[in-house]
Amino acid sequence: MTAISTGATSAHAGRLSQTAAPVLEIRNLSTVFPGATRPTVIVDDISLTVRRGETLAVVGESGSGKTMTFLSALGLVPHPGRVAAGEVLLNGTDLLRLPPEELRRRRGAEIAMVFQDPLSSLNPVFTIGDQIIEVLRAHAAVGRASARRRAIELLERVHIPDPHRRIDDYPHQFSGGMRQRALIAMAIALGPKVLIADEPTTALDVTVQAQVLELLADLKAESGMGMVLITHDLGLVARYAETVVVLYAGRAMERGPLDAIFERTRHPYTVSLFRSIPHLDTPAGTDLTPIEGQPPNPISLPPGCAFEPRCFLGKGRSDCATRRPLLEPIDGTDHLSCCWHWRELASGRAGP
Amino acid sequence: MKAARDGSPTAQPLLGVANVSKTFGGGRWLLGARRAAVRAVDDVSFELWPGETLGLVGETGSGKSTLGRLVLRLVEPTSGHITFSGEEITGLSAAEVRRRRGAFQMVFQDPFGSLDPRMSVGALIAEPMVVHGVSRAQIPGRTEAIMRLVGLDPRSANSYPHEFSGGQRQRIGIARAMVLTPKLLVLDEPVSALDVSIQAQILNLLMEIQQRTGVAYLFIAHDLAVVRHVSHRVAVMYLGRIVELADRDLLYGSPRHPYTVSLLSAVPVANPATERERRRIPLHGEISSGTAIPSGCRFHPRCARARLIASRGAIPTGDYGAEKLPLACLQQEPPLAPIEPGHRAACHFDSGSQADMVPGPLT
């Protein structure tokens, strides 16, 4: 345990300030897959910070690299991809430089991930209890009986009704929401410092989604763990996150505190995302402005900004088309934008 | 874009659904064990007017997809009547339904799974015309016209589905459904498989097609913001029943059924300041199953309002486990009754006041 994590603020504060200690820092992470002529960059120089007791929302569409960023961070990039550069600091230790055995130990114990589809993440031929007990015993020398007691506590903790009986159920006997909660029980079994939730509720009904995410928020508040919420749903971001990073084509387009991203949006892609979906809190009949064109193909990205061909600000502009912008602080703040022309958004005149 | 409803007294609904039910299963297995029957749709009635969009929302197991298929006679109702342009279609033979198929069509969620990968786009769009005996001479011209209508380049008629993106494939699905100029399109989750940035393209396209052709939509979706955007009226289903049916702005602005209130309060909005003010009205317990529909009002096991009303006393209550609930909720199924013009809800205790039930202002 480093000095950094013991110096953190109260875990019970609802929304912590930016001064909470970082638990996970990803620095300049890049992941590539071999291509016909040159490697395809799937994660492109991503940097982000998860603080103790805070939720970082990672927003992007399919193919934006949001899942691959965290698979890379955990050493789980599928073959033949590989991490080409970067550091992944968990409480100061670079996970990418650990021996495989040590990395495996920390995965689960210190950093855990929950995936979108609970059915395919659970083994259908073992009971829910067996699968939780396996996690507990793989990481610590505990007897079967005490592991079982702990598994029942965990199921209770994630609000599975009648856990003494339901622990012996098989996954198909659980509803979708209960399966996702069982997976969360497995993920928190070892008390991780960081929990990565990858579209944890996309497959669930909206009322069940609310239950699952409120459970995650409660667990976070109690334990002070840091959370990553990977999602395409801006409503979930507004409700559950403290900080946000917006990804497009494997690159960070905008990053910053929640209110800055939503109220002082400084990247045209983020602006377009807001305007392309219907919102319950805008007048009915408000026109939607689609993002023209198609999501980018990572094999042949534009030479300049990856969003340039679809951008209401930059399409056809020579700087946007030829020079790649960097993710840079806006007026020295912790709000960053990767756009040559963010000032035009600040002036309030530009819009799609 | 005003739908032709509430018009003259002689106006006829395009689609009339009266007391329609659908039960799956039941009976016995081979060895005599009783099979549980699922009441997927239970005594549902509504009308759809020409040019109108009726949104149909509900969660898994609510029966909304089954209702969409019943309307098209893709599944047979167990009981009830369905009329299309005044003609009863429930009693028609399969051949007679097929002959009318051009007038009511379906668009599915998965644009890839519903297109034959071995057929070119032109052939896919022409197929319904061939089946319905459109003369060969007309087919190329109509294929081109419909491709333009849905925003596909007619020069891509010789390409195959895999060469198209998800959004373009959904355009192909819409083109196939529209090519026989139907009066009704049943859209089952038409954008939920698409990327966020593509959804708006398809939603705008659907609204534009409706304005140009006057086609009516039964729009089935779980996304309440999407349904609000496209619908004139909205029906909310719970365990096979419509529990609330209202003009769009009434349903979203002043929901009256406690399930609708909970559902709307569960949807997060993309505004941090609003989210900090909002209150969620959680549902109690876990979802009930279609094989064991609760007695009385089927929503009572999960209802926040029933618990609130019972706790205030002054009305007869009964036991639900360790809890007290109003006797009416436990014993009587509430009808979908008018509560104000353009607004129907199925609740014994609709007071018109939402003081204890609102999740907080949205705007």
Please tag this protein with its features:
heterodimer; A: 352 residues; Rossmann fold; 2 domains; eight-stranded mixed sheet; four-stranded antiparallel sheet; 20% strand; B: Rossmann fold
Describe this structure in words.
The complex is a heterodimer of chains A (352) and B (363). Chain A is of the alpha/beta class and 352 residues long. Chain A folds into 2 domains: 20-110 and 194-282 and 325-346, Rossmann fold; 122-189, no CATH class. Chain A is 34% helix and 20% strand. An 8-stranded mixed beta sheet of chain A has the order 6-7-8-3-9-10-12-11, sandwiched between helices. In chain A, helix 6 packs across helix 8 (176-188) and helix 8 (176-188) runs parallel beside helix 9 (206-223). Chain A is globular and about 65 Å long. Mean pLDDT of chain A is 89; it is low at 1-16. Chain B is an alpha/beta fold. Chain B has 2 domains: 15-231, P-loop containing nucleotide triphosphate hydrolases (Rossmann fold), CATH 3.40.50.300; 250-345, no CATH class. In chain B, the strands form 3 sheets. Chain B has an 8-stranded mixed beta sheet, sandwiched between helices. Chain B is built from 12 helices and 14 strands. Chain B has helices spanning 64-71, 94-100, 121-131, 139-149, 166-178, 196-213, 224-230, 248-253, 258-266, 272-277, 304-311, 327-331; strands at residues 15-25, 37-48, 53-57, 79-84, 87-88, 104-107, 184-188, 216-220, 233-238, 241-247, 317-320, 323-326, 337-340, 343-345. In chain B, strand 9 and strand 10 form a beta hairpin. At the A-B interface, helix 8, helix 9, helix 10, helix 11 and helix 12 of A face helix 6, helix 7, helix 8, helix 9 and helix 10 of B.
